[in-house]
């Protein structure tokens, strides 16, 4: 009885192990794929998806979709060599504005207001220093809709007529698309003629830390060749581990079988 069990275990184990041990030894180390790959076409970023997965930017995205400005932005991202930079106010930035400030705007004014939140050109965070020497900078909304940028030791502010928010984080910054989070809506005098009434914000966080640049923002995206996965590195070692643990199992079982037989 015990003998039968021992044989059964051994048989099962050898069946289980054989496909692994039968494997030919791992192929000789492949040369790292350093052969110059043809420079990959920049990946087309779906701005709708990007804004719905990050944020909360629901209000801004909803306005972009309602006015079709999203098409203008996506088209610029898809087809221009220049790329695009978008300053995206958070939902709480919109919630802070007293309702009449935006709800009384015509559709054209709303479109201009949204386009005012973008440059028809890609700027990484490190580009803003230079850009701030060119103030006032025209936006996607056209020549008279300008922003003043300031870069104080990496603390970047985007100045509109009625607000001067700091770039809080780099949501996405890989050529051709840059998306930066801001905590106030950008308001041009040409559209919002009077200073906006703000609802008292519930204890806003201090506006001190520089934009978190943990995203690969300063790299311009092009030529960034970070390995996409570590699979090639692992595949050489893991089969060994499996074989080894299989062998240990097998030896343990064999030893057990011997003990049982004795
Ligand atoms: C982006 O994704 C949304 C939803 O997944 C889709 O409806 C839309 O057509 C996409 N847009 C582009 C430009 O690919
Ligand atoms: C942008 O490119 C995507 C993918 O190629 C395409 O599905 C989409 O229709 C394009 N959108 C615009 C506005 O060019
Ligand atoms: C909408 O209201 C704001 C003040 O709340 C004002 O500054 C702006 O001029 C108004 N716009 C229109 C089109 O009436
Ligand atoms: C800075 O801006 C000027 C335009 O005023 C441009 O000619 C120059 O190439 C820019 N420098 C850098 C490093 O981007
Ligand atoms: C930008 O700065 C100039 C000069 O200080 C000023 O006249 C203009 O009103 C500012 N524009 C904005 C949008 O802040």
From TrEMBL:
Q: Which GO terms describe its biological process?
A: plant-type secondary cell wall biogenesis
Signal peptide coordinates: 1-22
The primary location reported for this protein is membrane
GO CC terms in record: plasma membrane; side of membrane
Question: Which keywords has UniProt assigned to this entry?
Answer: Cell membrane, Glycoprotein, GPI-anchor, Lipoprotein, Membrane, Signal, Transmembrane, Transmembrane helix
* Compositional bias of kind Polar residues: 229-238
The record's annotation in InterPro entries points to: FAS1_dom_sf, FAS1_domain, FLA_A
Positions of region (Disordered):
198-238
> Which residue ranges does UniProt annotate as crossing the membrane?
242-261
Q: Where is the FAS1 domain?
A: 44-186
Compartments in which it is found: Cell membrane
Spans of biased composition, class Low complexity? 208-218
Q: Where is the composition biased (Pro residues)?
A: 198-207
Please name the Pfam families in this protein's record.
Fasciclin
Q: Which domain of life is it from?
A: Eukaryota
- Please give, as recorded in its UniProt entry, the membrane topology of this protein: Lipid-anchor; GPI-anchor
Function recorded in the entry? May be a cell surface adhesion protein.
Q: Which family is this protein grouped under?
A: Belongs to the fasciclin-like AGP family.
This protein is called Fasciclin-like arabinogalactan protein 7
Provenance organism: Platanthera zijinensis
Task: Tell me the gene name.
Answer: FLA7
């Amino acid at each position: 009885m015990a003998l039968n069990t021992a044989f059964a275990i051994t048989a099962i184990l050898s069946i289980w192990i054989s496909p692994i041990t039968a494997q030919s030894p791992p192929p000789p180390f492949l040369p790292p794929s350093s052969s110059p790959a043809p420079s990959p076409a920049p990946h087309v970023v779906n701005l709708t998806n990007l804004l719905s997965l990050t944020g909360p930017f629901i209000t801004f995205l909803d306005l972009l979709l309602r006015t079709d400005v999203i098409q203008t932005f996506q088209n610029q991202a898809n087809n221009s060599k220049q790329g695009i930079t978008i300053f995206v106010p958070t939902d709480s930035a919109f919630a802070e504005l007293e309702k009449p400030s935006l709800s009384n705007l015509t559709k054209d004014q709303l479109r201009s207001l949204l386009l005012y939140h973008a440059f028809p050109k890609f700027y990484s965070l490190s580009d803003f220093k230079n850009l701030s020497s060119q103030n006032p900078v025209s936006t996607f909304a056209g020549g008279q809709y300008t922003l003043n940028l300031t870069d104080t030791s990496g603390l970047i502010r985007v100045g509109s007529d009625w607000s001067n928010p700091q770039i809080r984080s780099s949501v996405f910054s890989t050529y051709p698309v840059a998306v930066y989070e801001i905590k106030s809506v950008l308001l041009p005098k040409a559209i919002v003629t009077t200073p906006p009434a703000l609802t008292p914000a519930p204890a806003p966080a201090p506006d001190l830390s520089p934009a978190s640049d943990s995203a690969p923002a300063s790299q311009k995206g092009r030529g960034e060749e970070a390995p996409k996965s570590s699979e090639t590195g692992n595949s050489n070692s893991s089969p060994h581990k499996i074989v080894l643990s299989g062998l240990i199992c097998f030896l343990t079982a064999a030893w057990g079988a011997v003990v049982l037989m004795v």
